[in-house]
Amino acid sequence: MTDENRVVDNPDEDRYELWAGEKLAGIAQYSLRGDLTVFTHTEIDDAFSGQGLGKVLAAGALDDVVAHGRTIVPVCPFIAGYLKKHPGYEDHVRWPRE
């Protein structure tokens, strides 16, 4: 993540936001259930596609959830795919039932 790209939690909107400079580049929508953070949808604005920003958003959001001692539930296919490719989160994930 560069100084221009930042991931911030926006609890009023139930989402993590990826900002590229002053522009909203993507979101990772979630819902809170007890100590669980359930990721439901992730998207990157078309204007920012192909720049690897989805990975920046996922890493920032997941690292924040872990830092707050919460458990990740990856309902969103993008977040689930990221978790499968990036080790280190296993102790903080509860996989949804299929």
TrEMBL record:
Residues 8-94 form the N-acetyltransferase domain. InterPro entries: Acyl_CoA_acyltransferase, Gcn5-rel_NAT, GNAT_YJDJ. One of its GO terms (molecular function) is transferase activity. It comes from the Bacteria. It holds the Pfam family Acetyltransf_CG. Keywords: Transferase. PANTHER family: BSR4717 PROTEIN, PROTEIN NATD1. This is Acetyltransferase.
